[in-house]
Amino acid sequence: MQKQRAHQAAFMTYAFGGANEYAGRDMAAAHRHLIPHLTEEHFNAVVENFVATLQELGVAQAEIDDACKVVATTKEAVLAE
């Protein structure tokens, strides 16, 4: 779980305008083993949880919207569309 936290922290740093310091596999490779089971509903559920968490933390809506735009760029790779 620690490795996943580090990956998420690196992605969040990037999503909020920080440096892209992620050095792991690309999104498609990282999710390839899940692709047969992942659907758009799964992706949307993750985005909804992401937004809810940011709202609970008091992040401004404009920043949430910007971060969601970054997250949206990963959809194709995550779902292998």
Annotation keywords:
globular, Globin-like, 5 helices
Explain the overall architecture:
It is a single chain. By secondary structure, the protein is an all-alpha fold. The protein has one domain (2-79): Globin-like (Orthogonal Bundle), CATH 1.10.490.10. The protein is built from 5 helices and no strands. The chain has helices at residues 2-15, 27-31, 40-56, 61-72, 75-79. It is globular. The termini are far apart.
**At the third CATH level, what is the topology name?**
Globin-like
Helical run tally? 5
CATH level 4 superfamily:
Globins
Helix and strand element order: HHHHH
Overall helicity: 55-70%
The end-to-end distance, rounded to whole angstroms, is: 27 Å
Detail the topology: elements first, then pairings.
Blueprint: H1 2-15, H2 27-31, H3 40-56, H4 61-72, H5 75-79
Q: Can you give me a brief rundown of this structure?
A:
With 81 residues, the protein is mostly helical. It has one domain: Globin-like (Orthogonal Bundle). It has five helices and no strands.
